[in-house]
Design brief:
single chain; alpha+beta; 6-stranded antiparallel beta barrel; 21% helix
């Protein structure tokens, strides 16, 4: 679905006044360990949790927060050279973690068929649609299009395991970003998030792992390393380093910074093999030009600590909006009650919605088992079809993924939502 490339200068586009506050988080105490001690080694998506551990946003809204620094992709679309473009795409992947540093609240698990749209076409040149396409495992499909010539799509399934002292959150699935002018198509995956001090102490979050961002057209690659926090390390905390190489493995840029603050890049003049590093491996030494800033984090809103440490964008995501689909996360009653500080009512409502979802699933399975199942499909696969996404083999990664089939924005234009399931 192509957008007209009629660029409006940013400063002349009308900017809607959006909210800058949400009600303060109430000071309810509840012992996390009292619930978590029964969860060791289990898949957490199957364990009902009270809203007391949540933040008043759904996982679909958290996924949409990846767009906080969409300007990096706007800049990338203007790059003449694909290797420099890759630096901006890499900075974008790092920036998506910057809002997580103090966000220890768990997002709401979306209900099957729940959607979330973010239409910032007038203000920022992009619009985004997410849909929960599977409940077990929980998976969301996301499609973003920009009039600055880029498209982003992802399907992310969240696996989470409680390991005793800490909780591991492992997003699975590929992210795709393509640029219409150059035809460059980049893919990468998300890293593991760890929530520490589940039993005692203050909860804190770390991001760790390695990411390869690959340009499928040229073979260029950026290898990023997110260093895990270490009490004994002299390195700066939350450190990220990266090397951008061409298709034959020659380094062109070095990236460095932190995932919660900023990223810089330096052009490589020459590289040489240095002395042996740890484990007897030779370290490569790069001679580079002076570093330039790629990205830095926005200042946190005033009083963020009383508002779940939300960023400026996060504060606006659950703001009521006219004309959205009846399945939109903004319409979700338990989440709205929680945002308004009415947690006891929110917990009651959450139980009602989850029971309603289970009843719908049982109904689908009964209907389906009375008919002959489609060949080669499980009962669950054959009984549910998402509204706005369809499952197909990804031509690039060969994975089976849900891809946007179109129609959402047209339905919004007509205010024709009669096909939407009644999930609330």
């Amino acid at each position: 679905l192509e957008l007209e490339l009629e660029l409006v200068p940013r400063d002349s586009a009308p900017r809607r006044e959006r909210r800058k506050r949400i009600p303060d988080k109430p000071n309810y105490s509840l012992n996390l360990w009292s619930i978590m001690k029964n969860c060791i080694g289990k898949e957490l998506s199957r364990i009902p949790m009270p809203v007391n551990f949540n933040e008043p946003l759904s996982m679909l809204q958290r996924l949409t927060e990846d767009l906080e620094y969409h300007g990096l992709l706007d800049r990338a679309s203007q790059c003449d050279h694909s290797l420099e473009q890759l630096c901006y795409v890499a900075a974008f992947t790092v920036s998506s973690y910057s809002t997580t540093v103090s966000r220890t609240g768990k997002p709401f698990n979306p209900l099957l068929g729940e959607t979330f749209e973010l239409d910032r076409l007038q203000e920022d040149g992009y619009r985004s649609i997410c849909e929960q396409v599977s409940h077990h495992p929980p998976a969301a499909a996301h499609h973003v299009e920009s009039k600055f010539g880029w498209t982003l799509r992802q399907e992310i399934a969240i696996a989470s395991k409680f390991r005793g002292k800490y909780l591991s959150i492992m997003p699975q699935g590929s992210i795709h970003c393509s640029f219409s002018q150059s035809g460059n198509h980049y893919t990468w995956k998300k890293i593991t998030t760890t929530v520490h001090n589940i039993i005692v102490g203050k909860l804190w979050i770390d991001q760790s792992g390695e990411v390869d961002i690959v340009n499928r057209k040229t073979g260029d690659k950026c290898h990023l390393k997110f260093a895990p926090y270490s009490y004994f390390s002299r390195d700066v905390a939350r450190k990220v380093t990266g090397v951008v190489t061409d298709s034959v493995g020659k380094a062109h840029y070095i990236l460095s910074g932190t995932w919660d603050e900023k990223m810089e890049y330096s052009r490589v003049l020459q590289s040489s093999k240095g002395v042996n590093g740890a484990e007897g491996r030779q370290k490569t030494v790069y001679e580079t030009l002076r570093a330039k800033e790629l990205w830095h984090k926005h200042k946190a809103p005033e009083h963020a600590e009383t508002m779940y440490y939300f960023s400026e964008l996060a504060l606006t995501l659950n703001e009521p909006e006219e004309g959205v689909a009846p399945t939109d996360s903004r319409m979700r009653p338990d989440q709205r009650l929680m945002e308004n500080g009415r947690w006891d009512e929110a917990n009651t409502e959450k139980q009602r919605l989850e029971e309603k979802q289970r009843a719908s699933r049982r109904r689908r399975e009964n209907d389906s088992s009375s008919r002959s199942l489609e060949e080669g499909q499980s009962l669950v696969e054959s009984t549910y079809r998402p509204m706005w996404f369809e499952r197909e083999e990804d031509p690039v990664t060969k994975e089976l993924v849900h891809v946007y089939k179109g129609g959402y924005w047209e339905a919004k234009e007509m205010q024709d939502w009669q096909q939407c399931p009644e999930i609330y």
